[in-house]
Amino acid sequence: SCFVYCCIYPKDYEIERETLAMQWVAHGLIEEGIDVEATATQ
């Protein structure tokens, strides 16, 4: 689900990991309180 979420961005768009991770939390794709930046890196 997290990977598919990235499809909302245009090709070659640079996404900041922290911003992306916070968006995932907001949309309920990952749980708050875990290392969200590490999850975004994976």
Description of the molecule:
With 42 residues, this protein is mostly helical. It has three helices and no strands. Residues 8-39 form the Disease resistance protein winged helix domain. InterPro entries: WHD_DRP. It comes from Nymphaea colorata (pocket water lily). Pfam families: WHD_DRP.
Radius of gyration computed on alpha carbons: 10 Å
How much of the residues is beta strand, in percent?
under 5%
Q: What's the number of domains?
A: 1
For the secondary structure, the number of strands is 0
In the predicted model, the low-confidence regions spanning at least 5 consecutive residues are none
Distance between the termini: 13 Å
Discrete helix count: 3
Mean pLDDT, all residues: 82
Major β-sheet, in short? none
SSE order, one letter for each helix or strand = HHH
Which word captures the global form?
Answer: globular
Alpha-beta classification: mainly alpha
Proportion of residues in helical segments: 40-55%
Outline:
This protein is an all-alpha fold. It contains 3 helices and no strands. The chain is globular and about 30 Å long.
Brief descriptors of the model:
42 residues; mainly alpha; WHD_DRP; 3 helices; Disease resistance protein winged helix domain-containing protein
List the helices and strands and how they pair.
Blueprint: H1 2-5, H2 17-26, H3 36-41
